[in-house]
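Input chain follows. Return C-alpha cells only.
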Amino acid sequence: MEVLKIATAGSVDDGKSTLIGRLLYDTKSLTDDKLEAIERNSKKKGYDYLDFSLATDGLVAEREQGITIDVAHIYFSTKKKSYIIADTPGHVEYTRNMVTGASQAQASIILIDARKGVIEQTYRHFFINNLLRVKHVIVAVNKMDLVDYDQQVFENIKADFEKLNAQSSYDEQQITFIPISALKGDNVAKKTNTMSWYEGVSVLDYLEDLKPEYDELTAARFPVQTVIRPKKDEFHDYRGYAGKIYGSSLKVGDAVTVLPSLTSSKIKTIEFFDNHYEEAVAGSSVSITLEDEINVTRGDILVKSDEVPQSSKTLKAAVCWMDGKVLVPGAKYEIQHNSNRILAKIDSIEGIIATDYSGEDTSKNQLSLNEIGKVNFKLSKNLFYDNYADNKAGGSFILIDTQSNTTAGVGFIG
C-alpha cells in the first residue's frame, strides 16, 4: 500500500492536536481503549463534545517530563493509503525539531487560527517547508466555527498567505487552502454543508488523491547499505548489494556506475528475499547484483551511467544547527551523506538566514542552536552529490561531532 508522509505545523492552540485526533477518529484509527479514554476525560473536563486533542496527550506528557521526543510520528490508514504524520512543536526554539519532521515529508499541513490569521510563526513554518522543498502544502484555516464560518475571514487569510507565497519558490498549484473546523469535523475527513461557499475538497480527500513526491524525481540513486556475502557453499560466488532506491527506477540490464570509484558494470539481478524483479521503483529496498566483479562497499552509491552527479572537494549548503555548541569557521566535523562519511572543515559562514523571509544577516560568522545559515565546507575527499531541489537523498547530509558522535546539524545542498 502506498505510504504518504505528512508534516504538521501550527502555533500553540491552533488546533494541531485536535486535527490529528479528528483524522484518527474519522478514519477509525483510534483503539477502543484510547477512544474510551477520550470520552471519559472529555466528560471529566465538562465538555459536551469529544476533545480529540487528547489523542496525542500521551506524547505531550512525555515531553513535559523531559523525555526527548524530537518528532512524534502518528500512523493511520485508509483503504487507499497509509499515512505517517510527523507532529512537531512550532516554537522558534524548536526549529531543529521542525526541520527533522519536515525533512522526510511529501506533504505538509500548516494550521492557521481563523481568529488570528497569518502570524510570525506562520512565516517560519512556511519558510522551513520551502527550504526543505516539501512539494505540497495544505494551508488549513482552522476554527472556522468560531468566526461563524465567515467566507470573508477565510478569503482575507488566503490573500495574506498569497503575499507570503510570492516570496517563496512555490507556485500557486502547490498551495491548497482549506477552511476547516477540526473540533466539529468540518472539511477534515469529509466535506460538510457548513461552508457551502467552499467548492474544494476536504483535507483527507486531498491527501487521498496526492501522489508521493518521489514519483516525480528523475535521477536514480542507490546508496549501498551493506554487502551480502552468504557463507553457504552453494552461494560461494554470490555478492549482492543491499539498499534503498531513490529517484527513478532501476532495471535489470541498466548500465551503472559506482561512486566514488567511477567503475562501471550492468545490473544482473534485482532481488528481495526469494523474489526476482526486472525493475524496482523508488522507495524499494532491494538487493542488486552486478555482471562484473568490481569493488563495491558500504557507503558507495550506484547510479545510472548517464546520470552521474556532480562532485567536488568544496561544498556550499544551508545548515540548520542543532547543537548547543556554536558552529564556527575552522571547526571539523564528519559529513554523513547517505551511508558515506567524509571529514569536513568549516571554511566560512556567509550569514544567518531569517526564517521570516526578511533576508540574511551577514554580520555574524557563527551559527547557534536552531539557527539556519549558509555554510561553506572544505572536504577531505571528493563528494558526489545532487542539489537538494533535484534529489533530496542526494542533496542532504548530517554533520556529526567527531568527539561526541552526536548529530550537530543537518545540511541541504544547493
